[in-house]
Design brief:
The complex is a heterodimer. Chain A contains 14 helices and two strands. By secondary structure, chain A is mostly helical. Chain A has a two-stranded antiparallel sheet. In chain A, strand 1 and strand 2 form a beta hairpin. The two termini of chain A are about 20 Å apart. In chain A, about 40% of the residues are buried. The N terminus of chain A is likely disordered. By secondary structure, chain B is mostly helical. Chain B has a domain of about 160 residues: MetI-like (MetI-like fold, Orthogonal Bundle), CATH 1.10.3720.10. Chain B has 13 helices and no strands. The longest helix of chain B is centred in the last third of the chain and has 34 residues. The chains are: A mainly alpha, B mainly alpha. Chains A and B meet through helix 1, helix 3, helix 5, helix 6 and helix 7 of A and helix 1, helix 3, helix 4, helix 5 and helix 7 of B. Chain A: It is found in: Cell membrane. Chain A: Its main location: membrane. Chain A: Belongs to the binding-protein-dependent transport system permease family.
Chain lengths: ~325, ~270
């Protein structure tokens, strides 16, 4: 693997051969042009769309974020005022808090639930393939469908969940109609959708743990609980790390299910950052602030991800 | 450890996994049940066994929006986006893994930079771009941001790098050019990585909501998630119709999923092992 890498990555390997052959620049040029042709042939199909539909919008987003603009009248330069205004704004603080609550509620549920399912499916079990496929089904269902189905299940008056709660004499929350319960409703449905995804990642991690470790620990007289804490969890840490990084990146960008279930309501009680970006642009015509907010969110996600990658040495063990 | 489990432990295990399966499957069943319950009986919530099942909700759905066209839109856009990402991604992967050119690392750095920027940073300027060129409300607008994905390039480049260089060299001696080496040697050998990229491209497009919401207004260019979201009324929602729409959008993807279930799950698991 390393040998191939060196040869493909290092252009100096082929150069000495050319120089000993004593080729002049004039004879080498046609070959270089030909190589350049191949480079363009292989790279342009991806480079052009990425440039036009990602890089250019990226730069213009930065540009827009320094202006006051309602998408129609001419842009007005405001420097960093959009950023400073947002950072001191009460609404900004609220939408970041809601996003944080979402992530803090969602991650433990999907991780614990996914781990339990993965541990169960890692046992000898009849119908394992069927169960795995069943748990994964919500993952391939779109967020909008999941949000609609759960909005119906969590309907306060005639939804199934409240009917069941009522039948056993428990209080029936107002879910997405109640400011207190709107975020929990979103968290619950999101966790339901992603449980299978986390399970598949963790199951792959569990299956890569060598059985010898368990055998050796058993010979040493350990019990199942000790083996779980001392072998399974530490050796599962690379998969755990992947789940946490991905969940945080996606979690901070939560939008679809919130937009469909609550539209940020009731009275802003479940508005999240991306929802605010959307509303600022398309409802209030404040595209400059929306762009600035998207960059603040991006910076936050980047910082959190970098911190995790830096910190992984402390708790992630690669076998 | 596995064979010595006691009977109660085994029963508990089966109860747990079956309860899990019920929690995952029941909402889908409930969706189907609701969609065939007559509208009048919905006030107290549907019952498990529907007394007088009806397809009325599906008829209302057909009147409310061009649902077949929306379904075909979703499938066509997802397939097109997948094919395009496989072509552009594998070609770029070959370019980065096999060709030598100045500033290669800088160019690759640009690719990686686009990988890190989330869609919501791009949504506003992308929308303006489309508006400037009068491309809102077109299939092209839906497809544009998904023609190439840096994630795909990254994943496929790793796969191409793992293909032994000796194979290329042998083919070069036999007189094969880059195009022949790419199509007959590299592509067949990176099929697992292509499958993973295909799964993510298809699911990404099929589930995409924010971008269609921003750029599409007319029902005839909508995709399923967007079309479904418009079924919700401001004040009242006809849940039987919404659930009928949900069934229509679940069935195709469920069929794809059932056929390719192993590959899809393997593809997802593959990204987690690094």
């Amino acid at each position: 693997m390393n040998g191939t890498m060196d040869r493909t990555e290092d252009p100096t390997v082929s150069r000495p051969v050319e120089s000993t052959a004593n080729r002049t620049t004039t004879t080498r040029r046609p070959r270089n042009w030909k190589t350049l042709g191949w480079v363009l042939f292989f790279l342009l199909p991806s480079a052009i769309p990425l440039f036009v539909f990602t890089l250019v919008p990226m730069v213009s987003s930065l540009w827009v974020s320094l202006h006051k603009w309602n998408l129609i009248s001419p842009m007005e330069w405001v420097g960093f005022r959009n950023y400073t205004n947002l950072l001191t704004d009460e609404t900004t603080r609220r939408v970041f808090l809601h996003t944080l609550i979402y992530v803090a509620g969602y991650l433990p549920i999907v991780y614990a639930g996914g781990l339990v399912l993965a541990l169960a499916l890692n046992q000898k079990l009849k119908g394992r393939a069927f169960l795995r496929a069943t748990y994964f089904l919500p993952v391939v269902t779109s967020w909008v469908v999941v949000a609609l189905v759960w909005k119906w299940l969590l309907n306060p008056t005639n939804g199934l969940v409240n009917q069941l709660l009522g039948a056993v004499g428990l209080p029936e929350p107002g879910w997405w109609t109640d400011p207190q319960w709107a975020l929990p409703a979103v968290i619950l449905s999101s966790a339901w959708k992603d449980l299978g995804f986390v399970m598949v990642i963790l199951l792959a991690g569990l299956q890569s743990i060598p059985n010898d470790f368990y055998e050796a620990a058993k010979v040493d007289g350990s019990n199942a609980w000790q083996r779980f804490w001392r072998i399974t969890l530490p050796l599962l840490s690379p998969s755990t790390f992947f789940v946490v990084v991905i969940s945080l990146i996606n979690g901070f960008q939560v939008f679809d299910q919130v937009y469909v279930m609550t539209a940020g309501g009731p009275s802003g009680s479940s508005q999240v950052v991306v929802g605010q970006i959307y509303d600022l642009t398309f409802r209030y015509g404040r595209a400059g602030e929306a762009s600035a907010l998207s960059w603040i969110l991006f910076a936050l996600i980047l910082v959190i991800t970098v911190i995790q990658i830096r910190g992984q040495r402390r708790w992630v063990h690669y076998a | 450890m596995r064979d010595t489990r006691s009977l109660p432990a085994r029963i508990a295990l089966y109860c747990a996994v079956l309860a899990g399966a019920a929690i995952m499957l029941f909402p889908f069943l409930w969706t189907v049940i609701t969609s065939i319950t007559p509208e009048g009986s919905l006030a107290d919530g549907p019952t498990l066994i529907v007394d007088d099942p009806t397809l009325g909700a599906y008829r209302t759905l057909l009147d409310a929006m061009p649902i077949w066209r929306i379904l075909v839109n979703s499938l066509a856009i997802a397939v097109a986006s997948t094919v395009l990402q496989l072509i552009t991604g594998s070609m770029a992967a070959y370019g980065f893994a096999r060709l030598h050119f100045p500033l290669k690392n800088v160019v690759f750095g640009f690719y990686l930079a686009t990988l890190m920027v989330p869609l919501q940073v791009l949504v506003v300027p992308l929308f303006i771009e489309m508006k400037t060129f009068n491309l809102q409300d077109t299939y092209f607008a839906l497809l544009a941001p998904t023609i190439a994905s840096a994630f795909g390039v990254f994943l496929l480049r790793q796969a191409v790098t793992a293909v032994p260089l000796e194979l290329d060299e042998a083919a070069t001696i036999d007189g094969a050019g880059h195009l022949r080496i790419f199509t007959t040697i590299v592509l067949p050998l990176i099929r697992p990585a292509l499958a993973t990229v295909a799964v993510f491209a298809f699911m990404g497009s099929w589930n995409s909501f924010l971008w269609p919401l921003v750029v599409i207004r007319s029902p005839e260019f909508m995709t399923l998630p967007l079309g479904l979201s418009t079924l919700q009324g401001q004040f009242t929602t006809q849940w039987d119709v919404v659930m009928a729409g949900s069934v229509v959008s679940i069935v195709p993807i469920a069929i794809v999923y059932l056929l390719a279930q192993r590959h899809i799950i393997a593809g997802v698991a593959h990204t987690g092992i690094k």
